[in-house]
Amino acid sequence: MEIILAIVVGLLYTVGVYLLLRRSILKFIIGLIFMSNATNLLVFLSAGLVPGSPAFVQAGSGSSAPLADPLPQALVLTAIVIGLGIVVFTLALKYKFFETTGTDDLDQLKKTDN
Amino acid sequence: MITFVALPILLPFIFIISLLVFRSDRLAGWLGVFGSGLLILLSGYLFILVQKHGVIALQMGGWEAPFGITLVVDFLSAIMLVVAALIVFSIAIYALRFLPKTIRLNRFFIFFFGLTMGLNGAFVTGDVFNLFVWFEVMLMSSFVLITLGRTKEQLEGGIKYMSLNLIGSLLFLAGVGLLYGKTGTLNMAHLAEILKNDNQAILMNTSAVLFFVAFGIKAAVFPLYFWLPASYHTPNITISSLFAGLLTKVGVYTFIRFFTLFFVHDQQFWHQLLLITAGFTMVAGGMAAAAHYETRRILSYHIISQIGYMIMGLGIFTPLAIAGAIFFTIHNMIAKTNTFLVAGMIAKARGTFELKEVGGLFKQSPFLAILFMVPAFALAGVPPISGFFAKFILIKAGLENGNYVITAVAILTGMLTLYSMIKIWNEAFLKAQPANEYASTPFKKLKFAEYFPSVLLGATSILMGLFAAYLFDFTMNAANQLIDPSLYIETVLKG
Known about the structure:
The complex is a heterodimer. Chain A is mostly helical. In chain A, 63% of the residues lie in helices and 0% in strands. Chain A contains three helices and no strands. Helices cover 76% and strands 2% of the residues of chain B. Chain B has helices at residues 7-21, 25-53, 75-98, 105-124, 128-146, 152-183, 188-196, 205-219, 227-231, 237-261, 267-291, 295-316, 319-350, 361-364, 366-380, 386-400, 404-430, 448-466, 468-483, 486-494, and strands at 56-59, 70-73. In chain B, helix 3 runs antiparallel to helix 18. Chain A binds chain B through residues 20, 25, 28, 32, 35-36, 39-40, 42-48, 71-72, 75, 78-79, 82, 85-86, 89-90, 93-94, 96-97, 100-101, 109, 111-114, and chain B through 129, 132-133, 136, 140, 143-144, 147, 150, 152-153, 155-160, 162-163, 166-167, 170, 173-174, 176-178, 180-181, 184, 186, 229-231, 233-234.
């Protein structure tokens, strides 16, 4: 299962990088979303998968059954929330930019360079 | 007493909430200045406290380390907090006079405190994931600040700034994931303890590389700096100065923290990489600054060039070199912000940032000339102002350790710095005002609130130069604490 998910992470990064390299700002943002999800999945996988086991047990139960590590789940929850906020902001910024300039083409963004 | 460690985060948060409740712009100005003034007092108190105890740690929520989030203040964090508070205070006063009418003070100060909260959080946290969260708080506020004026250039600069920094954040988070997968902890002190005597620590390189790129983007090192010159000259000068003094330096702080505390394996490779990066950063930034004729662009490229010196100190990795890097960071935060403030005053007096369009300011206002001279001399490294000692320590450390190439590069970059500063001096102050539309604008006399922030920072630069020995002793202690983190580890894990 971990192998499959690891491949999925790789695929998501590939798609993300491909979209980042496109000329459209909207596709760029979608690429960011893909990469952000790939990263979230990577963090989630970092403790390994322990299917069917609880993350918490009763104190003093002395059970030696495998436990799921709750920490990556907490981390990934935080990361998803932060990612959501950021995606909303990027979309709002893109909308405002489109409203003022009427372009979605990254190649037109040359005025502030050099 | 120890709960004071959480206050640098809590205080800006309280001010954000009060600014959300009381929406008057008049009050916002007062709250901004008052809040940042309080922050100076608070960080000053923490500074004294740290000198007495060495390292202080607060376990948040009563969860013991390494299970909970720990806030730690050691010498490095304490000095960064003080300097950041000083800069934040001067910018708060500066904003009152220099923000345009289109930006409401209330909005500005909400995100100003948001940025301060993220910044202070990054300085005091002792947990890698928590650091990521503070970075995001800081970045989010800076995204809003940079686009606050809503002009075409600002939106364009904002998109460039945002996209590259977001990629940096994603790499940072991926690094955190891999780090946790390999060590099972994210507490920095615990990581240091685990990795200290681990002969398989070389496996950490996968995470270390991700962190290197992520912090490299934040700190704007070669070749990851392209977002900085594309965006720093677009927002209002108040916001540019705030960014110039603080944002990239957090990247440098995390570099120093990570690569002294727990990424201490495989030193030959990492130090070599850091030195190469540092050299290219210095030269690329310095050359680009020499080619430009707009104050904000010159100064933006110049930020990059100076980042190189700080990374160079880390790359040499002797106690003296790290002390030099810390000294340089503090000096640069103050002097660099000050040059931006003066650039804003020149632009206010003449109506443009283009150096070719202005001139004759020395005759018009010798006082403004002095205000520019202090940070310019500090950056160029003229004794007895702070920059001289900062560069001197770094170069001495480089020669002692036999890193001749990087030392030569550092000295030559000093020439480039001097050249950019002389260019601004010649163009804006010495040459006669060219006959153009700006020539007829009458020179407005500067008001107290306009020049006070620059006087404050300039005086700090000079004092840092005059009392360099005390400051050097302090940075040396900080460096020793970083090289041998046993007190840090002990305070966090057993305190």
